[in-house]
């Protein structure tokens, strides 16, 4: 039998969901998206060892960290334990969270206070998310919702660039009215995630792993097709993946960092890395430090010149429609190891897309005796 407190919370969540439906447009193709997920789930369960490992690690992670992020234990949370959760080695699910560890843990008292409020289910999730987002430097939506999933694995799903990109790819992403708060967005997204999990008869942890497979399928297929191929082209493909991460981690030290800053959004300090859109993920999205200008940066990874230029223009068009305010402009930048006549001709007809070439060099130095 439900207590009065539980009935109030349930009522608040129901009213919240009803109001959110008025702020978020229906998804473009719900049935088609669910069918695609269902087929991918069957395939991944049968043949995908990486997916099976991530999905199978759920209980290991929950056993270790669910009690850490309980409302009773959060007041005793220490930096070592929190930062351990941010590593892929321990959370078994999310890469890159550890980069924000030093910023998040700079004020542990503040972190404990914010997490205690986030995990307190006496208030609707919408209000808790609005109060928690950006309350601790570096702790964006990927970390906040990852903690929620571990603390309450049957109620809260993960909202990060990967899950958003997957939902957009599957035409399941709800479009929101301008002015919709961060908390309102998450409440609607979480409602959708729970609905999808129910449709697929999976838990929210497994659903999140499946989203990773949706987004990563293209790169996995490329890697598989080149398995055992030690050609220069294969090595270059891998190098450019590392270059992507290098640019993100060392942006301010590069030539681009003098005039541009990687885009950030409420709840996502690194939103500009693999920015999700309805037409794919932008490698790097930046804004000019002084002017009203946006920059789309794409690395040419073995694509044809036509594919590369078309991809950049597609992203530019999407940003122009969805992110740009009055008076702002959008530019494109292609980073490649080398150019050819096709790429040169294509760029000569486009005034707002330029090309930079990267070089890699190393030397061997004898050790001192």
Please characterize this protein's 3D structure.
The protein has 369 residues and is α/β, with parallel strands linked by helices. Helix content is 53%, strand content 10%. The chain is built from 16 helices and 6 strands. Strands 1, 2, 3, 4, 5 and 6 form a 6-stranded mixed sheet that branches. Strand 5 (329-336), helix 16 and strand 6 form a beta-alpha-beta unit. The longest helix has 22 residues, at 204-225. The chain is globular and about 60 Å long. Residues 1-22 and 219-237 have low confidence and may be disordered.
Largest sheet: 6 strands, mixed
| Helical run tally | 16
Number of domains: 2
Shape from CA axes? Answer: globular
Give the radius of gyration: 22 Å
In terms of topology, how is this protein built?
Blueprint: H1 4-23, H2 30-47, H3 49-56, H4 58-65, H5 79-85, H6 88-91, H7 101-104, H8 108-119, H9 125-132, H10 141-151, H11 161-169, H12 182-200, H13 204-225, H14 232-249, E1 260-262, E2 273-277, E3 280-288, E4 293-299, H15 305-322, E5 329-336, H16 341-348, E6 353-357
Parallel strand pairs: 4-5, 5-6
Antiparallel strand pairs: 1-3, 2-3, 3-4
Helix pairs in contact: 1-12, 2-13, 8-9, 9-12, 11-13
Record keyword descriptors for this entry:
six-stranded mixed sheet, disordered N terminus, alpha/beta, 369 residues, globular, 16 helices, 53% helix, Trna Endonuclease, Chain: A, domain 1, single chain
